Amino acid sequence: MEQDFQDLNKPSLEERSHRKRSRILLILLLVLALAAVAIAATLLHSAAPDAAVATAAVVSPSVPAATASPSPSPTPVGLLVTFLDVGQGDAAFLQSPSGKTMLIDGGPESAFSTIDQLLTARGVVGLDTVIASHLHADHIGGLIQLVDTYPIGNFYYPPFDAESETYFQLLDALKESQATVSSPLAGKDTLIPWDDAVEIRILAPYQTVYSDYNDTSYILRVSYGNTAVLFTGDATSLGEKLAMKAQPNHCFEATVLKVGHHGSSDSTSAKFLKAVSPSIAVISVGKNNDYGLPDEALLNRLKDAGVTVYRTDESGAITLLLDGTNVTVVE
Nearest 5°: CA angle at 270, between 264 and 275? Predict the structure, then answer.
């Protein structure tokens, strides 16, 4: 669903470059500061061996358990997926078991502050991979400032140009960045490299003429162990049908479905839903939006299939942990 806005006060290329250089300088300063703290701690430790021995004695197993502080629970291992609340748009942040980072879509232009807050809270100073499902403004608007601000390793988007100011601004930002830009299409085994433990398979689009630009969306299956998330962008039922003609139905099976087109009635057809067979569905949609989404017919299809539904307009950001066997909602 396209929501394209023009802003005459958008920063120039020079201003964006300056902002990016400033952030990189800040990252370098933080690294140097952390190194200085580590060196100081090492010197302090070597200068006061008695204190170190005393500290070790405090945490010795011989101390009665009642006087010891409880140990923190180990961090769960798995694929962490956060569907951000960016209003009427899509944005999802993924972190792999080894700490690799990825953003799929960036919502409208106003979404950057929400994305930036999440990345800062998670301690993310750069992104390994960014994927734009397609080039409508409610999916790429927030990516312009993201590209200006954060170092990015690889950037992917489908090879279907969009005639919009938002798209042209994203291209300008990418030219000024150090990101490697690619536009792969779906094939028999088209994969996006990211983390050795996680497979990202492109199931659509193909090199053909799509009558609805929404159907140029990437359909991506991100799998870890026996769990998977299927991202569908804004693909309509026709896009789903074309994808299922090209790939066996089992390729679409996923534990979690990111519902297509913000819960529109023309997406997530009954046949497609049966092929995916999800336990959980996530709808990224704006509160009190002008489109009446999610559509009641779509909600009924999900209910009849016994799928648990989470909506960003009701729950805000939704974080799921896929441990390879189960999916857990992280509070």
Answer: 115
**Cβ–Cβ < 8 Å for 307, 280:** yes
Q: CA 269 from chain center: how many Å?
A: 24
Structure tokens at 111: 């979404």
Q: Which of 116, 143, 118, 139 is nearest to 129 (CA)?
A: 143
d(CA 188, CA 75): 36
* Beta-bridge partner residues of 281: 257, 309
Please compute the mean of the pLDDT values over residues 207-232 and round it to a whole number.
Answer: 97
CA 154 remoteness from chain centre:
14
- Are the C-beta atoms of residues 150 and 173 closer than 8 Å to each other? no
Residues in the chain: 331
Ramachandran category for residue 129: left, alpha or beta (phi over 0 → left; psi -120 to 50 → alpha): beta
Say if strands 219-224 and 199-204 run parallel, antiparallel, or are unpaired: antiparallel
Residue carrying structure tokens 């974080």: 319
CA–CA dist 93, 130 (Å, integer): 9
CA-based nearest residue to 268, from 300, 292, 246, 236: 236
pLDDT in tens, 280-327: 999 999 999 999 999 999 999 999 999 999 999 999 999 999 999 999
CA-CA distances (angstroms) from residue 191 to 21, 138, 153, 186, 256? 32, 25, 16, 9, 19
Closest listed residue to residue 256, CA positions, set 233, 224, 230: 230
| Each residue's pLDDT tens digit, 153-165 | 999 999 999 989 9
pLDDT surpasses 60 at 213 = yes
Closest among 127, 118, 95 to 27, alpha carbons compared: 127
